[in-house]
Every structure is written in C-alpha cells, then in structure tokens.
Amino acid sequence: MGARWRNPAITPLPVGPDAGSSDTPRPTRAPRSVITPVRFPGAAPVTATELWIGIHLTESAAQPPEQALESLALSAQRFTPRVSLVPPDGLVLEVKGSLHLFDGVEGLSSALASECAALGLKSRVALAPTSLAALVAARAGRPQPFVVTDLTRLVGQLMPLPLAVLRWPEDTLVRLARMGVRTIGQALRLPRAGFARRFGTDSLMMLDRLTGRSPDLRERFRARERFRRRRELSYELENHAAILNALAPLFAELGKFLQARQCGLMKLECLLRHRRAEPTSCVLRLAAPVADVERLTALFAERLNALTLPEPVRACELRSSSLVLRVLSSNSVWQPGEYGGGVGAARAEELIERLRARLGPEAVYGLRMLQGHRPENTWAAREPVTVERSTTLMPRWQSFQRPLWLLPSPRLLSERDGLPRRRGPLRLLGEAERIETGWWDGGDIARDYFTAVDLHGVRLWVFRERGAPHRWFLHGVFG
Fold it and tell me: Which is the CATH superfamily of the domain at 52-211?
C-alpha cells in the first residue's frame, strides 16, 4: 500500500462521541483558547490570509433596515473596497490591508462605531479570519469582544456560540436540540457523513465556510452609480437654443459615462440655476433605457421649449437617476413592412418619449389592471412601458365584453316604457351582467350591465340600477 499524503495546512476536525472529552489526546487539533481582547495588531500577530469584520445591526432609529444597511455599506467603503451585504441586518468587510491605516483593530473598531452612531444605528462588531465567522460572532453579541487573527484559533473560539446564530431552519435546530446539540462546537464534533445524510449538505458546507475549510465567496457591494455634472456659465443666457448649446459638453460627458458602463437612463433631470429665483427643474422621463446622446438631446430640447424661465440662467447641472443595464439586441433582417417585418418596439418608445416631451409627462401614461369588480376601480395610471415586465395575469371575463372607453362618471339616460334612450331608442344585446359588490367599504353597487346599440350603430355599455328607482345610465363606449 502506498503512503497516504496529508496536507499540513488543513487540520481535520475530530469526530466521534469522545471527541469533546478533555482526556482524549488530539494531536492534530489546535489548542483551545479564550476570546482575545481588543488590542493592536502589533501585540497579536496576524497569521490569516484574510481578516473580516462582521457587523450586526440591532436597531435602526431613523430608517428601514434595508436602507440603513445600504447607508452603512456606503460609509464603510472608506475603510475597504471589499464590502458585502448580508440582508436583512448584516454587513462584512475584509480589512486586513486597512488595519495599518486606522491604528489597528482598536482604531478601526472605533471608526466603525462612530460611523454607526452618525447614522443612528446600534450594532455589534466581531473580527475573524472568515467572513461567516465574523458575522455569526457579531450576531452572538458576547460581552467580551470577539477578535481572532489566527486561523488555527478560530474553531476553539467558535465552539461555545449557540447554533441559533447560524440561522439554520427551525426544524433543523429543533432536531439537533433533541440530540443534545445546541452549540457550534457540538455540531462540529458530529460525524460528517451522518450529519450530511440527516441535515443535508448545505448545513455541512456552511460549517466548512465558517471554519475556513472551504472558501466563503461574497458578492461585493457596489453603490448605485449616477451621473452628475455642473457647468458655470461665463454670462447669463435667456435663449433656449443658447442654453442647449451650453449643455452640449455635459451631454457629451454623459454619453461617454453611459458607454463605458453599457447602461442607459430612465430619467434625466436638468437644473437651471438663476441669480435670485429658485432653480428651474426640467425632468425628462423615458419609456425604455436610453444611452444615445443625440436622442437624449433632441428629447430634452422638446422639453426645454415648453418651459418658461423666471430669470436668465447662470449655471446648469445634469443629474441622472440610477443606471439601468442595457439589453442589446440585433435588428431584424427585414425592414419594417418588408416581407412581413414589423415595426420594432424602439419606434413605439420614441413616439411615447416625444409625445411626453412635447405635451408633458402627465398627458401620456400607461394603464395597469387592478383586482376588483367595480368597473371604475379596475385600472390605474402608470408610467408608460412598451414591454410588460410583470407576470401578473390579466383579469378575464369569459362571457362578457368590456369597453375600452369608460366615462369619468356614469351619465343618466332618459327612458320610455322601462327602456333606455339616447338619440332615440337603444336596442339591448345579449344577457345582463350583474355586478353587486363594494358593501364592505361604503361604495356598494348593484347593477345590471347590457351592451346596447343606438340608431347610428354605436355600441354602448349601459346599466340599470337594481334598486329603486331603477334608472338607466351610460357607462362606456365600445371602439
């Protein structure tokens, strides 16, 4: 038999029922140690390839947890670029290369505490060679600071922590508790093969990432990028064409900014600043992500022409919303209308954007369906989009048709012999659609709807009240 090779850098964990006994010799395991107090790295030599700080938010006074976590991540990027979010209340930072810049562990911990206090956050902090170990130690909230700079000492300090800090499923924790396993150390002593069969490989892999047996890959947090440029003018401008020329360098910078990131915009704002009056805001909303500078300039010119400036312009500033990743696609082989080639969605987007730029964003909008039976409450205005991104199913009426045009409010009709009239008698088609709903919110209705045809062949949507005096109303017109 050949000799078995063992990697000296990996220390196997003891298994078996007697693995935790103090009399059992454990020659291949690092000695146990107590939690190291906070001190400078000069007093505690760093032997791990990485050092992570885990931050657990315990309370946010002024903002929701998700927003508070993102605000803290933005502030933490001044300590290290390797910042990762662990929603809903966790944050990890790789800080080995930053310790000497902030007077070691103690200085960096104090700086982080100051950042949390400035944001109105209460948090707990721990330092460990693996990101998961730092995070679970921060969740545990031990009174003595958890600071580990040596990977060989990590397992010994993790052992007394409760399993609840790993946030495993509740049924897994209950089953382990019935077996007498309530701490991380007791879970590490279980046979690996049996643990994987009973509780799955995901939990076993988490233990490996916790102790450094396998890498713990984290997605780096990136702040939302926005474009913001300002230009001070050498003289005041009143003419719209001159203002547009002054904005040309800013639009050129915007084009390079978007091209470098392969992104587009859904909203662009221009602030025109005056000497005494408040800045004039010119907002351009788009139907789809746009990165073409010529198209943005043309749309902005349309929007600018509709503005009335209170004073001449002294400075101008371009601001973008969050960038949207562009999904590029190739054009059709056939031209629109040739061999059945259809007009692409880009044409519809350009039309929507040009109409909104000329008429205003409030004049052009899209529609979305709402759940409900009252006809006037089944839709709402929304931002116009050419591609429906929602997977919500549209309501369907199998037996009845609904008109596209609903009147703002039902219009009373005259009647003769119990039948409605509008420019003459109306002829009712088909059966009645009865709608009785809304009794729970005070807007109850009880109506019988009919499709009717007038003398000119126009199809109308009318209803008759079920309660006295049984009047007839016009509610919609079919196309």
Answer: Reverse transcriptase/Diguanylate cyclase domain (3.30.70.270)
